[in-house]
Amino acid sequence: MDPLAQFQVKTLFPLKFLGIDISITNSSAYMILITFLVLLFFKWGLRHLSLVPSRWQSAAELPVYLLEKMVQEVNGVQGGPFVPMICSAFFFVFLGNVLGLFPYAFTITGQLIVNLTLALILFVFATAVGLYRQGVGYMRIFFPKDVPWVIAPVLVPIEVISYISRPVSLSVRLFVNMLAGHSMMKIIGTFVIMMGPLGIVPMVLNVIFTGFELFIAFLQAYVFSILSCIYLNDALQGH
After folding, report:
1. Within 13 Å of residue 168, how many CA atoms lie on the same side as its CB?
2. Signal peptide: which range, if any (predicted)?
């Protein structure tokens, strides 16, 4: 069994509009599902707000509170308006990672184009915020103050390459981790079937590895979010 088959994008409902292919694929279907699950989770958890929160209310408020605290630690009070964006990115990546752990499920974060699109949205947004708040002065991130002009020909190209590579590094890191981890689970699962009665050994190993992958799913979502905050910090405060 091909361990990479689980990452293949397949058309579920072929659709065309004005000659443009807008078919519903397993990838887009899972994005819609993730959006629905997030909305349902918060709608259900916050349906009865109380000063003494219920379990569901606590479950809905706690991750948002922790993410808000993370944004404020990195960006200060200026980061407040951007908490919803960071929360949205975190839940999208986290659920995209977790849903892929289920048998026969599709891992949207195992698609480089999905990760790159999300990273580019955050990157362009952060750049727009930087230009809006600092104007031309935002370009100082490529050549900070008090740096000798003599090293400008070397420093500026390095800083520009480093800056435009941010969405690439964000997306590739997530893509590689999901591709490697979920492929390994598939390979171990294949051994469980092939080894018959002796498959108990790889099965136990796969259960342990699943727990590890669940941790990685959270960790990668956290890393994606906190790096987004760090990149946003340049836009808010500069060098």
Report:
1. 5
2. none
Please provide the size of the chain in residues.
Answer: 239
Helices (H), 25-165: 26-45, 55-75, 83-99, 112-134, 152-164
Binned at pLDDT 50, 70 and 90, residue 29 comes out as very high
**Neighbouring C-alpha atoms within 13 Å toward the C-beta of 191:** 14
Give the chain's end-to-end CA distance (angstroms, integer): 51
Task: Please enumerate in sequence order all residues whose Cβ is within 8 A of that of 219, keeping only pairs 6 or more positions apart, or say none.
Answer: none
Rounded Cα–Cα distance for residues 61 and 58 (Å): 5
pLDDT in tens, 70-103: 999 988 888 888 999 999 999 999 999 999 888 7
Q: Do the strands 20-21 and 24-25 form a parallel or antiparallel pair, or are they unpaired?
A: unpaired
And the tokens for 200?
Answer: 């108990």
**pLDDT for 105-157, tens place per residue?**
888 998 999 999 999 999 999 999 988 888 888 888 887 777 777 887 888 88
Residues 215 and 86: their CA atoms lie apart, in Å, by: 20
Query: The whole model's pTM is what?
Result: 0.86
